[in-house]
What does this fold into?
Amino acid sequence: MRARELQEFGVDTPLGRIRGLRGVLRRDGDARDDLPRVIALHGWLDNAASFVPLAQHLHGIELVAPDLPGHGASAHLAPGADYSFAGAVNSVLDIADALGWERFNLLGHSMGAGISSLVAAACPQRVERLVAIEALGALAEVPERTVVRLRDAIAATRALRGKSLRVFPDLAIAARARMAAGAQVGSRLQLDAARLLVERGVVPVEGGFRWSSDPRLTLPTMQRMTEPQIRDLVAGIECPTRVIFADPAQPYLPEPLRRERAGLLPRGELVVIEGGHHLHMEQPERVAEVIGDFFVTAI
It folds into this structure.
């Protein structure tokens, strides 16, 4: 499978037009028509190109990697709406419905793994298997910060209105900016990978390029689950689940918390490999080896 074999696709959903990449990743000599269907969900401020390197090493599946709402080439939410995990669950189901997929598998990275966790817990009748990379569940908040978080989010939302967006004179500068942003949260995103994301994540404007993603994605979340709520959610994921974490752990999900969460999965297994947060882009062959035949193994 070569990256160029991933084709652009688009579907209409209640929230707007969703675009992305899809491809049938066959084994050599495989003529099956009923390959397992996998929806791949990217991380925060990434896009469908996040899965291009990994797709070259996966086999035996039909892969659909959408740009989630507000990301890449997909539609932004309507004015006044805000991006939430609960809303993202319905977005994923809307995409599956538009594809005509009643049952499907999920492959998620970072935010996409968090969203996949919620979909799997909420809709066990629809999700066959889950591979979660660099996240499981959602980001937690202590109850004592509920009011502070709400106030900060509302203030940031009001301040964003009318704010001008940065224009990059060329893609190389935009790629380095993406690398710098990732480094702030512990990602080791390299230039080639950053360039891949940037090429899909910008639009041309006068004077250069600007991000195509919705600026509202950068706003603080108004409300988060508590850790006990997330643990209940993870324990409610009924499908076979393989969790892949990078070593060292990210600050947002440190040890031993991430192992504790993975241990709550009724049918889960955990694999830890050395690498950075975008290990599926930086070490796609190794991550593909870990995924192996997980999606094509009969339940």
In short: The first strand starts at residue 7 and ends at 13. The chain has ten helices and ten strands.
